[in-house]
Amino acid sequence: MKLRQVIEQYITVKQSLGFRFRTERRILQGFGQAMGKITLGQVRPVAVRTYLDGRGPVTTYWTRKWGALRGLYRFALARGLARRCPLPLSAPKVAVPFTPYIYSQPELRRLLQAVTPERTKGLSPQTMRTLLLLLYGAGLRLSEALGTSPGFWLRMQGQRDLWEARQRAEERQPVARLAA
User: Fold this and answer.
1) Which residues of the chain have pLDDT under 50?
2) CA distance 71 to 119
3) 32 phi and psi, to 5 degrees?
């Protein structure tokens, strides 16, 4: 069966199941154009890899194309339209460029000067400054620095919410009884 026919069948099935399938449709149709007028069995692993690699380094779009083609070949193999899958067995790791923001010394000074007793809510300003410097200097998350988990912070927030609700309840004036 011709590659483009299999692609159109696969797209039709996916869309009939309720998937929007817009990006995948474009990827698969582009793959069909890149391969030309050939049958599904004539697709070679080298040609698939050339299509996946495109130009430049491996990106998350490489993984997206690989996933769309993997779905197509699973569809074709399950229906006996293909005997083998010419795709690489796994997608390569995508290097995500992370550029951390480095505060300048004046910015760091302003940040530390902004720590005042009114803003620390129970912690001394010295403790808060020390914590900020530790987090920034070591690149830690708050939970890593304090040895806590997200569940700990959620429980603490819930306890504070309950405490605030009790305080508001105690401050309210009692409602006078209504005469019957």
Assistant:
1) none
2) 54
3) -60, -40
